[in-house]
C-alpha cells in the first residue's frame, strides 16, 4: 500500500488515500480513506447533489455516528425527487451493538414508504465511538424493492479505513505540476528536473525566478545564479556557473539575446506586483554595488544528478 492522493476527473477530490497500485478495477484505483476523509467526501457529495447536479447524477456518501453501547437508532435521509416528482427518502436503521462484528448486517438502509412518517431516533450511549459508512446510489432508486437493502455499507479495513467507491467508481491518481512544467502522480515526490513536490516555489516571484533559471539553462545548463539589475526595467546582467561568470555577449557566449530577453520578461512580469518582502521570500539577495544600488543575485537550485 502506498500513500497518495486520488480524484475522479476534475469534479471530485483530491483526497488523501492509501492504496495498492497493482489493485485495479478496469484500470481504476481502489483507494482506502480515513473516516475524517470520508466525512469530507460525504459533505461534498451531498453538496453536489443538492446544489450542483441533483441526486441522480451522483451517489451520496453518508456517515452515521454513534456509540458501541447505543440502543438502535433510526436516521432519515432525503434524496431529492423521483421521476414522478415524489420525495425520495430512506430510513437507515442501525443496530450499534452489531457494528463491530458485522457492519453490513448492523445497518438496514430501506426505502421509506411514500407518505409514511418515519420517526428518527438519535443514537445514545457512552461507550466507544462507532461509525457506519454507506453509499446511496439514487440512480438505482426504481430498481430497489421495498424491504431490500438500498445502500452499500462499507466495513473498515484493518487500519479503520474505508474503500469507498473502490471497484465501482473511476478513481485516478491526482497529479502535481512541477514549476518546470512536468506533471507526475502525487506520490512521486521528485520531478525529473530534480525539484521535489515540497520544494516547489510558492510565490509568483519565486516561481518566476525558477522559470527564468530554466530559461537560461536551456542554453547554459551549468548556470547556477545570475545578477539582476533592478535600476530601470529588470535585466539579467551577469550569469554564473558557480563562481565562474559566463559570457552573456550575443556572438561569443552560450546565450543569445532572445533567451536573455525571455528571462528578463519572466522576471519583469512577476516584479510588477512584488515588494521588497517578496524579493526576500523568493531568495533574492541584495548585492552592494557602487554603480547600481539595486543589484540582486538570484540562484537556481542545482539540477538533479539523474
Ligand atoms: Zn520539474
Report on the structure:
It is a single chain. By secondary structure, the chain is of the alpha+beta class. The chain is 20% helix and 30% strand. The strands form 6 sheets. Strands 16-15-14-18-17 form a 5-stranded antiparallel β-sheet. A 3-stranded antiparallel β-sheet has the order 2-1-11. A 3-stranded antiparallel β-sheet has the order 5-9-10. A hairpin with a 3-residue loop joins strand 1 (2-8) and strand 2 (12-19). The protein binds zinc ion. Zinc ion is lined by residues 178, 180, 182, 191, 193, 195.
Tally of individual helices: 5
What are the bound molecules? Answer: zinc ion
Q: Rg, please?
A: 29 Å
Number of strands: 18
Shape: elongated
- Mean pLDDT across every amino acid position: 92
Strand fraction equals 25-35%
Order of neighbouring strands in the sheet with most strands: 16-15-14-18-17
Head-to-tail CA distance between termini: 27 Å
